[in-house]
Amino acid sequence: MTLSKVSFVADVATEANMNDNNSESEDEVLDEEEKLIENEIEPPLKKIKRDLVKEAEEELIIHDATVKDLEIGVDEKFKVVSNFLNSLFENNINTLQFENNFAEWCKGTLLLLVDEVTETSEEYYNFLCCVLKVAPTIFESVCEKVLSVSFVHHRFSEECDMAYNVFMEKLANTFEKLRRFPKLIAKLLCCVRENIDKLNPKVDVKSVKRRKSNALKSFEVSIKFILSRNFISAYSSIVSLLPVGQIIDLWKTLSHNLEEECIKKFNSDTGDSSLYFLLSVVGELIVAFLNNIKVADYAVPSSTVEKVSEMMQKLKEHNLVQIGEEMSRTHDINCIRYFLKLSSAWGNLHQIMVLYSQNYRHDLPEVPSNFVEAEDLSLIFPYLSGDKWIALWKAIEKSEDTINTHLMVSLVALKLNWFAMIEQRQRESSEEMLLLEKDTGSSLDKSVKANLKRSTQATAKFVWNFQHLLVKGDDSCLNMSNESILHIASIYMDHEELVGHAKTYLESIILSHASLDIKVTQEVQRYSTITFHVALVMEALHEGLRQVEKMQVMKRRIKKFLHDFLSPDFKINVLQNITKHEKTASDELQKIVTHASEVVNDLMSMKLTKEEANDSSDRPPVLLKAIITFISQQELGQYPKPVKSMIFLGCAVIFIALIDSEDYKDIVEDLVVILNECGKKSQGNEFLFHVGWDNMFELIRRNVKFLSPESIKRMCSLILENVYISPKTTSQFLEKFGKVTCDDFELSTPLGQLSLAVMEYILQEVEDTKAKSTPLLLNHAKELTNTAVSKLSDGSVITELHSLIRAFKKQKKKGAATTDTATSISFVSYVMHTCYLLLKGKSSMSTEAASEYSVIVLPYLRFALDFLEAGKIGGYEKKKCDETLHMTTPLFNCRRFSIECLKSFEEFRSKLPDEFLLRMWNCCMMNLKMENDNDDKDFEKGLLKRIIEVANEEEFKALCDSIVQQLTNDSSELTLAASLLNVLMEAEIPVDNKKPRRMTVELCLHKYLEHISLWQESDEVIDIATPYIEFQTKLLRRRKPMGNLNTLAVSMLSITELPLTKVKNMKSFRSLFTLVCELLNALTVHRLDVISYRTHVFLQCFQFLVENLVKKADQTNKLTDGEIYDLRHCGHGIERICQSTKLGRQEFTRVSPYLVVVLLQQFEKITVYPAVKNPLLNGCYKLLDMCDDKGISHVNSMLSAGSREIFKTVYEMYKKFYRYKGKV
């Protein structure tokens, strides 16, 4: 049924509901609807379907003759029949109505054409996919023949390979739907056995034993020729969802082929490589089976776990033992590879089941007394003795085979993870070594415990030494991330060795790439274990201090600091402390760090007294810059307190040594970032409590000219945070620097910037209600603000500011003289920042200063507006990138100051010109067009919102007119208009302005629809449509309704014009789709009157969303896990809409059958990813809650034959699990 017909029927029901609410009249309307459907809709559809079936059957006869025509090539026949089958599927032809048996015809045609195949092609696999779609049931009988042809004949093109991948994936999914998946695997392995001579790459076993790469490569290629990537992926996902019966059948099939066809035929004298080839194929399937079967999920029945337990025991005793013996005897490298793969898969599952399943029957052997070597895996993998495991590793090491080495390292990593879990259980449980005890009441011998500890260290060292394989290799065999196993290895390794590894790594990577700091950071990101990070950062800091020492900068003191603080013993103590294995190091650490703090204080005193000046004329080495940048890019905030303290003190030494030189400015800027990250709030860090913060402030004050404004602000905040933690330190600091900061307050000097930063921090502390502001602090705030007011009251400041405005405007003219841009812009920024802070801290001023500031603030407010306009008129948008960066801060400060002034605008209104607000409005609108940064846009919108709120009635009408004027056929202006409407809706306005706002909103809704075609034409639809959809949502969620019903209904319909199919990026699709779902959700929750008035609008919008989501979630689209997750989020949006419909049962009772039909029709057309289908089904169940018996009958009458079958299954599930039965 088409959407227009559904909408017409929905309109009939809606109008009847509005005219008469009587239950008898409602029944009459419903009967009228059903009669309308029966008489006007269904007969034409039935006639059309009968005609289509007749035409299809006539074409069937023609194609039957084509298939038997010997003069037509087989590929051409494939194309013709494929087109015919596709037309049947697309037109939804019911082949059961054919007079002849269509399935038998498909089967005969397939067998006839397959017999003609001499070389597989893309057309061949496309034909097989078409048959799978229209007649999947015939494949069980022809599968073996089809697979034999597909395996035997080579594929000579990439397109053919891709078509084979698609076919094998669809074949697996089809058999899974038919619940015959184990049968497919049985037939596949049967085909491999029957055609083993043709499939086997004919590799001489002796060449395999000599480990020639070509021999191994041919094996791998031949296996991938059969088990394509898509097939293995589909196989893995199917295994994870199989019921217990099919799991048992599949396991029996795999076990039979492994045991009967491979293991029992092991004979080294035959020299036949086909046996190892079959072992490889079966091994791949068993590995995928073990890696994907679910046993730890709460939904898995206990019977499944019991069967898996039996399978694991049998695999170990009957298979792995025999393969291990054969491997030990022959040392065949291919046999070793699949033995290790099976061992890894078995070990992963074994580990999971031991941890999560109480019913898992396992027997761990007694711990041997000599269980020390890392390669001895007999405790975890008991089917080989320890000596044989060690011999196997030596054979692998000798072969230099990377894959087998990686697999062996993975097994050792499993052993290490096992030890880590044992220790965790030991700490959590009162029973010592619970998992390793043979008898419940016995405990392990002390010698065994010592051996276990040594074995753990040896295993950790083994894993760490092969970390490059774990990082770069294929980690499919691991049941843990590379990062987690490396973290475990770093914890259990000897810390002295770990420090040595960090030093070696630093020398080999960082020192060899001294100028490539980006590469250094990328390299170290391979190791995300915090233990190794800390070791590496300590070594980097040590090397940085050595570089400063080489520069002859405070050489003697830095050498002493290195000797006392960053000694090898100290580094080991730090690592032991953060791994929490030896807690006794804490007191020693605190003593060392306290001593280092004293050294830093001595260095600052020396610097301030000029006892050891920086006389170095050397340029800073590139390596030092790379090291400091590397440290600054680490996540220092996550490090433990001793580590942060160590980094802070080490970087403080470098900072003190280099601060007074222009040559080291870039390095100092990075050091400021590190110090600020590691040194904040030392109240909770006893290590930094003894740092001389007052001396550090004096050091900053004397060298402030070498620091950037941002660094001045950061260091000031850092120092004052640590000074104001106690009244004692506060009084000492203010006694020393209180008067000095007031005397230094100059708007155009670096010292003035420092005083401004102090004033900003103090005003923030005073404003914070949680802060215990002492009288000294309040008094200092008053002195600073009074000083700032006196500086601003000087008429020369405002005069200089206006001269700068004139200079900016002149720069637009060609050949005009330019001023010192950086200096001028900085001056504007400081003045505006000062004005803003004084307005915020007006309560801290004296009465005289507050009165004076109320007078002088007006000229600065006028200047702020002039400067904002000059940013546009003076060519701000055309300036170079570096000048644009300079302009950002003053514009930001002008906006902040303007917003703060508008909060008390009534105080200034009479003293400002009448057009002041309108000028500021126009200026902000133009800046909003030019801004690219979202934060700047939000700030600009905040200013616009404040202007709307303070405007009088006349000004408000002018503002509304300017919004309407933006509704043109230009996409940027249309986007701006929608953004302004959002601001208009959010603003809290006086009563007199509410009627003009309502009229403006209704007018804009109508005018916007005139330009809705821009959505289809624009490539950036999300940027244009988002503000308008957000505006509609806010309009619907208003506490007091706004807008008449017809206007709102028509504007809602506009979302069906969204070109969601054009949105390729899944994140953008999710964002836009979620916005539309929020809009429909707001409609159902807040404006049921609109739905009652125009029900078909809601129905069309709902169908539009479902269709676009299902198209994206089609399983033929190859999506990543992240993309599927985004679509699942969209599916939950549809589910929430269905849930919201329950709030309006009266309005939605008649509509819910149509909504159910919309969902079910999509399930018939497209196979949706299960992750997306589940929330849609949940939404369907919520809609069925509102359907009575007549509604269910109505749903059946609107569905096709295929959809009825789907509905039957869905309805049965609903009645069984979801329908409310009056019980909780």
UniProtKB/TrEMBL annotation:
Protein name as annotated: Nucleolar 27S pre-rRNA processing Urb2/Npa2 C-terminal domain-containing protein
UniProt organism field: Orchesella dallaii
Boundaries of every Nucleolar 27S pre-rRNA processing Urb2/Npa2 C-terminal domain copy: 1064-1223
InterPro entries: Ribosome_Biogenesis_Reg, Urb2/Npa2_C
